Amino acid sequence: MKEKKSISKTLLTILFTALALFWVYPVVMILINSFKLDKFISTNTVFKLPGAESFAGFSNYVEALTSQGFARAFGYSLVITVTSVVLILICTSMCAWYITRVNNLLSKVCYGLFVFSMVVPFQMLMFTLSSTADRLNLDTPFNICVIYLGFGAGLAVFMFTGFMKSIPLEIEEAAMIDGCNPIQTFVLVILPILKPTFISVCILETMWLWNDYLLPYLVLDRKKYTTIPILIQYFKGSYGHVAMGPMMACIMMTVLPIIIIYICLQKYIIDGVLAGAVKG
User: Are residues 40 and 155 in the same domain?
Assistant: First the structure.
């Protein structure tokens, strides 16, 4: 029996190692080509390491930072990500608390609608959403967070609700006996207990918002506001030539912060997902 378990673990290790390498190789390919001159980036030399003739140094990164408005696009992406994540965390955690503690028909219907929203394809809504955003003046990086709240609430409420079911009601009752009102109970008692799921939802929503392309492309005025994913698409030089080297450098500078955050905080993602899906 032990030998079978050992063999199965070895096979699973090999399988997941191969899958990890499969997912990592595009990032490695982009990193290699970000240090090459444009004329040496082609389908035949894409996996070759930079040589003496093809090595561009950090010139691609300098051009990416200075030639296409990278800093402005980075700032817009940062504003959208931070405001949307903060709004999602605050609203969905309080909503999940209400759904968990107020056990009536309304809360059950609300929870069902949040879960159902996760399976609705974005393509069904995008054209209507674009015109609605224009009418409501939600087409700037400073208020698009309202739209992201609607799309990100389903997963967040699902995870928060699953974890809150494991929190004993007696803790909240003791806080109210000590004089806490509902807001104080939520902030001082519930939020500290929610830390694993709170961090997990924060990271997952950040990864989604930072890399999102379609929603800003449809909603924002691209003549005024350009996010990082949109900037990468339009990363062209003179006469419509695509500057592949600077574009690769731009992609690396965009992906690297998210990779670092994910590696440093991946244990919280696992803990939060398990807490929201298993407990209760």
Answer: no
Asked if 39 and 245 count as a contact pair (C-beta separation under 8 A), the reply is no
At residue 242, what are phi and psi to the nearest 5 degrees? -85, 120
pLDDT tens, 4-62? 677 788 888 888 888 888 888 888 888 888 888 877 776 666 677 787 777 878 888 88
Tokens at 97, concatenated: 């608390």
Residue 57 makes CB contacts below 8 A (sequence gap 6+) with 35
User: Is the pTM value of this prediction over 0.90?
Assistant: no
The domain boundary, picked from 19, 49, 64, lies at 64
| 242-258 confidence digits (pLDDT tens) | 778 888 888 888 888 88
Are 122 and 15 found together in one domain? Answer: no
Half-sphere exposure of 89 (CA within 13 A, CB side): 21
* Domain extent at residue 250: 68-278
d(CA 212, CA 227): 9
Residues 86, 103: Cα–Cα separation, whole Å = 27
The answer to whether 184 and 175 are in contact (CB under 8 A) is yes
Angstrom distance (rounded) from CA 114 to CA 149: 12
